């Protein structure tokens, strides 16, 4: 492990911002700290950087315990949440600052800064001040400034928060490619799961000062380890009387359940593709239709339970108030902090081992079932 | 439509009335008295004006005023920087109390400040035994009250909060991220102050210094309590008072002449202040 946090605790005026944090990060990986606002992500990042000291626990970077090593000696590049660019310095001077502090020769500073300006596509902006740049350009300057002194570890606090939604996606890809190109171990903080999933190879989910789960995006989506992760990841609908749904029986103590849109299929009752399984479906009424660009999001009322699902634009038109047949393939049942994946029993009986599941969704002659 | 025009006329009248009242008030309360100072100072001709200003007492008062002002501004600039730094960059017990204490000179009458210093540093004051001991040690007589150190101390007291008052909001508003970023890259405290903090606060600092200077030049009450020797420890405001109270025609005109110096200095300060506010505003756009 390149970066390791062991049993870290941190309290601010009696408020426990970090509770027994254990984290391991591999060399060369790009890790996301994902969690709601106030869950302690920034605190973790700042403790790694040395801007904050843990009350207890050890921090290791490259095998060395760094608790007592000064922030500037830890070999870290830090991109602050609002970039914290030096507003009275030009782009060039911003990037050169860390090198000047290290008293490097002028020639070398110039060479390194020019190199970074080219790498980050800021050529021509050298003489501008931060207030003369767009959000994306500022991010690039902050990135270049953090990389200038050749750190071994790059920490980024909500690097996309100040960016317009429109260019955010593009910048995420840019940053991911850039980090891979430079090959630097990186940790970034975000409260946006799309961002974490798109950019990171490993995700650490935080909540309430704790680490809830660590894993790849797929692991966290597929096997949420705690109640919190189950209710935080994806687009969950939390319901509390899932025993009423066909194919599900309330398991002992698991009173609450989480259903995601992709666990649900809603089809018109005359859809022949689903005729084998119509017996395991419920009746649901469309209460809302939202256009999502590439698909529709339907909100359905299934016997008083509110569920939502996505529907391809290629399929037949639906309207608000229309009665649909609704199948729920599976759901996550929650008891305390325990999570259990429950499959639709009736559907299983009809379709052993999900043999035909694929064909419910995709027809042979066209992509989607009408 | 008709309703609208009527409404408009009404607000027009209100506007003109308010502007007129403000202007009239400023004219009666400020402009006319100040012009009359200049006018009266030149009533006996320019030669008399120059003569009045080069009198022994006036020159001494000018020197004392400058000395007190320079020291007070230097001390308070340093103190203001330290205090505002401490108040905005560290959290400690009693922080709020310190912030409130710094503002005391704003709310207390300067005369009381003068008297308080007499009670502290005077012959019967608390600090008297210590001063005597220190004086004995150094082989000199340390005199604070009714001497130049008293004048300087009084001036420092009344101009205490000006610099920190200007700096604290700026330091608070900008946060510490940039400083942290610099520290992470290995910059030391002085280098951070010089390259990151100072450029951000310099206009506010200068503005605070100007206000501090203006107040130091004009202080009367606190200094009056601590300074009793004309030609030695009198400042310009005290000299003006003395000249005026002496009663004969020449002295009164002379007192106006001396006043005109302070008026001119005040106008200079005003102009500087205006320029600085303008500069600070355009610097403020750099965000
Ligand atoms: N310097 C501080 N002083 C007091 N409380 C703090 C400080 N830094 C963070 N906190 C508190 O710790 C909690 C976690 O903060 P933070 O790590 O910034 O969360 P996140 O980055 O996940 O939004 C918050 O409730 C915040 O108020
Ligand atoms: Mg944060």
Please characterize this protein's 3D structure:
- The complex is a heterodimer of chains A (about 375) and B (about 290).
- Chain A is α+β, with helices and mostly antiparallel strands and about 375 residues long.
- Chain A contains 10 helices and 19 strands.
- The longest helix of chain A has 18 residues, at about 165-180.
- Chain B is mainly α.
- Chain B contains 14 helices and no strands.
- Chain B folds into 2 domains: about 1-40; about 45-285, MetI-like (MetI-like fold), CATH 1.10.3720.10.
- The two termini of chain B are about 45 Å apart.
- The chains are: A alpha+beta (about 375), B mainly alpha (about 290).
- The interface of A and B includes residues 49, 72 and 131 of A.
- Bound molecules: adenosine-5'-diphosphate and magnesium ion.
Question: What can be said about this structure in brief?
Answer:
With 370 residues, chain A is an alpha+beta fold. Chain A has helices at 41-49, 91-101, 106-119, 135-147, 165-182, 193-199, 217-222, 227-232, 345-350, 357-361; strands spanning 3-12, 15-25, 30-34, 56-61, 64-65, 76-79, 153-157, 185-190, 202-207, 210-215, 237-239, 256-259, 264-267, 282-291, 295-302, 305-312, 323-328, 330-335, 338-343. Chain A has 2 domains: 3-227, P-loop containing nucleotide triphosphate hydrolases (Rossmann fold), CATH 3.40.50.300; 235-369, RNA polymerase II/Efflux pump adaptor protein, barrel-sandwich hybrid domain (OB fold (Dihydrolipoamide Acetyltransferase, E2P), Beta Barrel).
